[in-house]
Amino acid sequence: MKKSLILMGVISLSLLASPAIADNTEIRKYREMLFESVGNITKMIGNNLKGDAGTASDLIPLAEALNAHAQLVVPAFKTNTATDNGDSKANPKIWDNFDDFTKKAENFKSEAQNFLEIAKKNEINQKNFKQLTASCGSCHKAYKD
Hints:
This protein is 71% helix and 0% strand.
């Protein structure tokens, strides 16, 4: 059930990424939903590892969901919304330094894939979770207002 709900969320976000999105308002909403989902999944994994919620068997579908979301980050920023009269929450520095942003986002994608492989081996621990969240944090430090 949990896996189905997570996959439905991933599919819903994937549909929003279609080229049919032309309105920057929808692009901004898409990004916000994407990062809200990434944050929620990351919190769920953290709570699971602390023993506050879920079971060890939940970690694989959570890692799968996080990995799927990580694949969507760079495509979500293909449209520059920095000039949208201040309506965008995205930091204009993203497009000023798009190569660096992309490098950091690709690192997050790689870390999410690695985390999934570790989850499949049932070897997730706080150390590799911190490594994953550090890859998120590198973008936050540089590009989140």
